Amino acid sequence: MRSLLLITALLLLWLSLPVNAQQYKNSGRIPLEGEGGWDYLAVDSANRQLYVSHNTQVEVVDLASERPIAKITGMKHIHGIAVADDLNRGYISDGGDDEVVIFDLKSHSVLQKVPTGKNPDGILYDPYSKRVFAFNGRSNDVTAIDAETGKVAGTVALDGKPEFPASDGKGSVYVNIEDKSELVQLDPQALKVKKTWSLSPCEEPSGLAIDVAARRLFSVCSNKKMAVVNADSGQVITTVAIGDGPDAAGYDPGNKLIFSSNGEGTLTVVSQDSPDKYTVLGNVPTERSARTMALDTRTHKIYLSAAQLGAAPAATADNPHPRPKIVPGSFHVLVVSPQ
Questions:
Q1: What are phi and psi of 190, to 5 degrees?
Q2: How far is CA 157 from CA 27, 43, 162, in A?
Q3: What is the side-by-side order of every strand in the sheet holding 141-146?
């Protein structure tokens, strides 16, 4: 009996120990054919599929086997993917053609193409309004689309370049404004800006995640900070240190962890000790170029797009900060798993 009580006590102690960054490891990689760059990924937890933007096509990966099973082709420059499981629809922002491509989640066939503003980038399905929102990086506005019919419901003007969005599912959609270091709160039903908040001291925010229950937003910024923001008041509660070159964020409600994927080759892991207290647990080594990520909240795995990078071309007046060239045939998705 004493032995059983001791074992039980030790098990409870182990379960109560905080998660740390060392408990996340690179557990594999998913090679994907084709050339060109990439942007966002999206997990469809219900259908157990991962959608990966890859230049002119979307790669569909089965999450059970972690193998590619399909491609959605015929686009020019893909940025992001959003999923509406209740409608059996997926949505792709094609910045090259200035449109949103609607596809069937089961057959992966293209159903419709909807014109947007210039260079739709971040994309979001809002279950509250049942609309899809495409955030247009060059025209500084948002195209709202009826998710079921594909009809454009309206356009909302913004005061700067929108980056990644998030929804609370209760009547608010949020988006980072990269060139103004701001966070905008939108009314997805009335199609208007409700509030605009400064993210200072964060600069050039990109990735955005949300804790719906605690009403907290997490914006990752280019000056190696993550801003924790009250989703109702817009107050910056605190900032925490992250790696260099972030482009995406994720919140895991099961483990109360926030992740920032950083182009320097790290994944910053932050513990949510309380809604107003956060601790950086560490930086998991990933790969240089692994800037974007998607989180599967069912398995707690994280998927990051990456490739081998060569030398950057010479700078020009039109392109003063050229990106390094991608080594042909090296594109893949890195898998980071809790151990």
A1: -80, -15
A2: 43, 29, 10
A3: 120-126, 131-136, 141-146, 152-157
Paired tokens of 304: 């990051």
Residues 250 and 231 both lie in one domain: yes
**Structure tokens given for 29:** 């990689």
Q: Which domain holds residue 339?
A: 209-310+322-339
Listed residue (298, 220, 204) closest to 261, CA to CA: 220
**Both structure tokens of 79:** 């940025």
- The pLDDT of residue 156 is 98
Radius of gyration of the chain (CA): 20
User: How far apart are the C-alpha atoms of 8 and 15, rounded to whole Å?
Assistant: 11
For strand 205-211 and strand 192-198, is the pairing parallel, antiparallel, or unpaired?
unpaired
CA 13 from centre of chain = 34
Q: Which of 49, 33, 35 is nearest to 81 (CA)?
A: 49
Q: At 177, which CATH number?
A: 2.130.10.10
* pLDDT one-digit tens code per residue, 127-140: 999 999 999 999 99
Task: Give the pLDDT confidence of 280-307 residue by residue, as tens digits.
Answer: 999 999 999 999 999 999 999 999 999 9
- Whether 19 shows a pLDDT value over 60: the answer reads no
